[in-house]
Amino acid sequence: MDPATASAALQNLTPEQKAAIMSQAQQQANQQIMSSMIESMTLSCFDKCAGTSGNRLDNKEQACLANCQDRFLDVRKAVQDSLENRQGNM
Description:
The chain is mostly helical. It contains three helices and no strands. The chain starts with a helix and ends with a helix.
């Protein structure tokens, strides 16, 4: 569908349909962001914590991975809270 046809189709939607489409697009964007964040967290934490102890993680590596993931999620939460505060102040 070309942009002009898509634009015309959007004009014919009810406000509820437009809201549903926007909500679905937001959910898809959030899922992509979460997938990207989890992939980044996994790569970063594995590179930081996993050694060359073979095909199993030792206790030290497991603790490092758990701590790294916790810090990653803490930072994500802090950023999300900050963004929500900024949006609330606008």
